[in-house]
């Protein structure tokens, strides 16, 4: 930066640009060394970027872990920082044109990536595993009535990805052929801990007919994801609130004896030459379509 100063002093536009840059948040308010602490990363910057308040992580969450050593160069808090006194509007990075009085020449960069786990409703004094257990006891209160049956799937990667998708969209239960899959490293790599937040039940493939019959008596519509002579186009199908989604095996799909147990087969319309999708992708598309329809219904009912 120091080598550029002579250039700025001799070029008019460069000098104006440098003066404008110095007004940016990361030059005028933020110091990468003085403000480098846990409080800045997890509380101050999320607050200034207007991320939802329940996703800020306050300092007391970290001070509870007294056994974690922190070096002097990376403290919990920075007592001298001015970030805590700033307003969210001070975070905005503005590039102002030559006619700064005109709103059209002003751009604000306020959108940020938001993938933080909400912590506000968690209990700070409890161990994380106890929080997971408490969450598991409340899983029955999910608004979704969708059950996804993946007992015919035998690849841990597909099951792990499907588990993650089901948890994200609030599926009430994921049925697998064996609960041993959740200990598989490939499953865990794809699920990113979703199995701790989702109701997982074991139904072996040979038990499926009895399981599907039981769910029919409970009022569920049994839906198969399969291309058949009488399958319904996904874009034209209206999901009942109590839906059970049966996914086929990666190679053989849904066997004939189980197709006879279905109330309807739903097919995903395709435009390409390849005539089949990965089973996790197929499941994800139907799970989202069910969720989308339920969201629309809830909005109408309001």
Question: What is the secondary structure topology, with strand pairs?
Answer:
Layout (H helix, E strand, L loop, with lengths): L4 H6 L1 H10 L3 H4 L9 H11 L11 H4 L24 H4 L1 E4 L9 E4 L18 H10 L9 E4 L5 H13 L4 E4 L8 H7 L8 E3 L5 H10 L3 E5 L6 E2 L9 E4 L9 H4 L4 E4 L11 H23 L1
Parallel strand pairs: 3-4, 3-8, 4-5, 6-8, 6-9, 7-9
Antiparallel strand pairs: 1-2
Would you write up a description of this structure?
Strand 3, helix 8 (156-168) and strand 4 form a beta-alpha-beta unit. The chain is α/β, with parallel strands linked by helices and 302 residues long. The protein contains 12 helices and 9 strands. It has a 7-stranded parallel β-sheet with strand order 5-4-3-8-6-9-7. Strands 1-2 form a two-stranded antiparallel ribbon. Helix 8 (156-168) packs parallel to helix 12 (279-301). The chain has helices at residues 5-10, 12-21, 25-28, 38-48, 60-63, 88-91, 128-137, 156-168, 185-191, 208-217, 256-259, 279-301, and strands at 93-96, 106-109, 147-150, 173-176, 200-202, 221-225, 232-233, 243-246, 264-267.
Which features characterize this protein?
302 residues, alpha/beta, two-stranded antiparallel sheet, 9 strands, elongated
**Regions with little confidence, pLDDT below 50 for 5+ residues:** 93-110, 119-133, 136-141
Molecular shape:
elongated
What is the number of E strands? 9
User: Biggest sheet: strands, sense, closure?
Assistant: 7 strands, parallel
Q: Percentage of helical residues?
A: 25-40%
Mean pLDDT: 79
Structural class: alpha/beta
Terminal residue distance: 57 Å
Number of helices: 12
Percentage beta strand: 5-15%
Helices and strands, in N-to-C order? HHHHHHEEHEHEHEHEEEHEH
Strand ordering within the main sheet: 5-4-3-8-6-9-7
Rg, rounded, reads 27 Å
């Amino acid at each position: 930066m120091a080598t550029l100063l002579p250039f700025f002093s001799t070029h008019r536009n460069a000098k104006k640009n440098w003066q404008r840059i110095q007004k940016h948040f990361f030059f005028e308010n933020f110091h990468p060394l003085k403000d480098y602490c846990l409080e800045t990363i997890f509380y101050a910057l999320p607050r200034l970027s207007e991320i939802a308040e329940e996703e800020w992580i306050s300092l007391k969450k970290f001070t509870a872990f007294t056994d974690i050593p922190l070096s002097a160069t990376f403290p919990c808090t920075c007592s001298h920082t001015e970030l805590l006194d700033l307003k969210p509007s001070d975070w905005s990075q503005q590039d102002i044109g030559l006619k700064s009085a005109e709103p059209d020449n002003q751009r604000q960069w306020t959108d940020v990536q938001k993938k933080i786990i909400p912590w506000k409703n968690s209990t700070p004094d409890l161990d994380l595993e106890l929080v997971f257990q408490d969450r598991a006891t409340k899983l029955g209160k999910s608004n979704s009535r969708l059950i996804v049956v993946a007992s015919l799937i035998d690849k841990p990667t597909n099951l792990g990805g499907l588990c993650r998708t089901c948890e994200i969209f609030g599926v009430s239960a994921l049925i697998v052929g064996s609960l041993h899959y959740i200990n598989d490293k490939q499953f865990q790599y794809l699920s990113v801990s979703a199995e701790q937040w989702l109701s997982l039940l074991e139904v072996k493939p040979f038990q499926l007919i009895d399981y599907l019959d039981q769910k029919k008596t409970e009022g569920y519509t049994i839906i198969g994801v399969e291309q058949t002579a009488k399958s319904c186009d996904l874009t034209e199908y209206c999901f009942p609130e109590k839906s059970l989604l049966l996914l086929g095996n990666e190679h053989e799909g849904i066997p004939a004896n189980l197709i006879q147990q279905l109330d309807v087969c739903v097919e995903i319309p395709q435009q390409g030459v390849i005539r089949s999708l990965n089973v996790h992708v197929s499941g994800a598309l139907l799970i989202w379509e069910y969720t989308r329809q339920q969201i629309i219904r809830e909005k109408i009912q309001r």
